[in-house]
Amino acid sequence: MRGGDDAEPHARVAWPTAPASGPCRGGAPIDPVLEVDGISKRFGELQAVDSVTFRVAPGETYGLLGPNGAGKSTCISMIAALLTPDAGTIRVLGQEMTTSSTAGRAQIGLVPQEVAVYPDLTARENLRFFGRLYDITGGALNTRVDQILDVIGLTERADDRSSEFSGGMNRRLNIGIGLLHQPQLLILDEPTVGVDPQSRNAILDSVEQLSAEGMAVLYTTHYMEEAERLCDRIGIIDAGKLKAEGTRRELTTSVGERDRVQVGVSGSLEPALDAVRHLDGVTSASTTDDGITLITDDAGPILARVLDAITGAGGSVTTVEVSQPDLEAVFLHLTGKALRD
Amino acid sequence: MSNTGKVWAVGAMNSRRFLRERSNLFFAFVFPLALILIIGLQFGGDAAPRLGVVDPGGDIAGIVSEQLAAAQLDITIVRSDDAGSLVERVESTDLDAAIVFPPDLDDTIARGDEATIGFTTANTTAGQQLATLVDDILARALAVPTVEQLAVERGADPAQAAAAAARLEPTLARIEVATVTTGDRLFPSDIEGYDVAAPSTLVLFVFVNGLAGSYALIQSRQLGISSRMMSTPTSVRSIIFGEALGRLSIGLIQGGYILLATLVVFGVNWGDPLGATIILVMVAAVSAGASMCFGVLFSNPEQASGIGVVVALGFGALGGAMMPIELFSDTLETIARFTPHFWAIDAFAELVRHDASITDIGTQLGVLGLFAVGFLLFAAWRMRIVLTRPGRA
């Protein structure tokens, strides 16, 4: 679960909330792919987005997590230069995004929430059409279309109309269009809504793969599990406001949520309890009927030491169960309501 | 890719989508030609009556053929030895009537026996005219040998009977069938039904399909494709031009097809080729603009398509696409002038019926141009708003 660990197989960037600090990787400043600074949007009486600020670095997957109507899609529309913010600025690779300028759009690949493909055109025709809009022509277009068909697993169905596709296949085609021009920033707006579990998993695998290859990804969802699985950092958005952002660990810690470790122990419990109570990182410890319960900020780093301490105190470990706080709890804490309300 | 290239890409995509739909193909290409065929046959114009004749030789057949050829009706006589094929051609209205003389007609009459002359007529005005004319000519052609035979039966010398009967011939009553058109002719005499039907059908169906196709623009918005196009490095202007080009292309393809097909299949006279082409371009442009207006004014594709067809048919009727403008009252003709159909059909009529050149139809082309520019500008303005406003998709 990438969102739960700070140490990832490939380099991940933990961004400070304050934009002035700037992103760093290995001590060197990194130019962000996306810079969103204080954007706001009002529709009549509704303040859809209110002073939202965040950054996305190369290779980072940033999740905007919030319920329906939170302002995620409005943010996406402004970032994709489909809407003009009432206030604030958006830059992609340093280029300001405006509805009148097309320059920055070449750097982004938008995968909208709806399946935005022509049902009466084939997969190949849809890809070719959008490829031309992304300035890909001639042999390069043919090659790229074939590559994308391969990536999204539709080579065999390339010349079938998309109206004949399943929902999952259309979702994959929808994503493929966004990848045609090898964008620096891929924007996925709730790409798994209405998708069967198998296709959903395939989509999530693809996003992980793209991120691993260095593409910056902005991912909106109201599925907590997706945000936890995919995102290096998560922005919690509700009623147009970015309530908090950070890694999953940072978010859960910031609201006082801790990991709970339950260790089943046979033998005398008191020596074991004494042995673990004073370990660094253990916030509290108590006995239960058949073992010990620990509360800690992060169970991962101390687990081995806990088990060693119990064994050293003459106890025998029978079971270990780690419960980590999830984003649902964070969202509830921040907004006073459940994510799916 | 240049902006021009993107305009072409959007235009080509629209054309491809239109041509891929089978129902579109039927209503754009098959139905109009069928309608032109029906109207052309129904209103065959003032063409010369066509009479099929099986003439095995003989005096009576010779006299009848001679007098038919000399009739005021300007009959086109088609000779054949195959009575069956002539009758079939009458049934298909390729001929207006057919007369079949038996081989032994003269001998049968001379013997005083009953003879049968086959006459088949189509249910057309020319057919009825031919029936009247043939009745008269036959009556007179048979009068002389009948009188001669009667005289011989009553004991007269055959030679004297023949001479007496021949003297009677000029005194027999004569019926002549002539077509007289009162007032001004609606169309020149060389204009056939197809020439009248083809231009109005072309105009009618380019508009019907254009407005019916307005659904595609709404569908693109509903599917989020318009927004997606906007998220690419493509300007709003290129998208709007592309959408307009697609619709213009569809109108040109459909109109060009009707023009060429009727030229080849029905021999329709379209007049000055350059003039006809420019009218077609104007009609397609007005239709494209109107289609885009519907596409940006409505938000429900079925509603736009349904109302579009009704409006296209209604304006077609008002504009003279269903009934020749020449038959309109003055009031109706004044109303018709507010429709683009009127100006397009009038321009075609000038080319087809009055051999006008492009310079003669400048007014009509100018008005069509104004319609096209007006519709396209309005649609572009609305489309820009629709594409860039919140929640458009």
Q: Can you give a write-up of this model?
A:
The complex is a heterodimer of chains A (341) and B (393). Chain A has 341 residues and is an alpha/beta fold. Chain A folds into 2 domains: 2-254, P-loop containing nucleotide triphosphate hydrolases (Rossmann fold, 3-Layer(aba) Sandwich), CATH 3.40.50.300; 259-324, 2-Layer Sandwich (Alpha-Beta Plaits), CATH 3.30.70.100. Chain A has 10 helices and 16 strands. Chain A has helices at residues 72-79, 123-133, 138-151, 167-179, 197-212, 224-230, 248-254, 269-277, 299-312, 327-335; strands at residues 24-25, 28-29, 34-43, 46-56, 61-65, 87-92, 95-96, 108-111, 185-189, 216-221, 233-238, 241-246, 259-266, 282-287, 291-296, 316-323. In chain A, the strands form 4 sheets. A 6-stranded mixed beta sheet of chain A has the order 8-9-10-5-11-12, sandwiched between helices. Chain A is elongated. The model of chain A is unreliable at 1-27 (pLDDT under 50). With 393 residues, chain B is mainly alpha-helical. Chain B has 2 domains: 3-43 and 192-388, no CATH class; 50-171, D-Maltodextrin-Binding Protein, domain 2 (3-Layer(aba) Sandwich), CATH 3.40.190. Helices cover 67% and strands 4% of the residues of chain B. Chain B is built from 16 helices and 4 strands. Chain B has helices at 3-20, 22-42, 59-70, 83-91, 105-110, 125-153, 158-168, 193-212, 215-222, 225-231, 236-265, 273-297, 301-318, 330-336, 340-354, 362-388; strands spanning 50-54, 76-79, 97-100, 118-121. In chain B, helix 3 (59-70) links the parallel strand 1 (50-54) and strand 2 (76-79). The model of chain B is unreliable at 175-183 (pLDDT under 50). Chain A binds chain B through residues 41, 43, 74, 77, 80-83, 99, 102-103, 105-106, 108, 110, 112-121, 125, 129-130, 132-137, 177, and chain B through 1, 5-6, 9-10, 13, 16-17, 20-21, 220, 223-225, 227-235, 388, 390-391, 393.
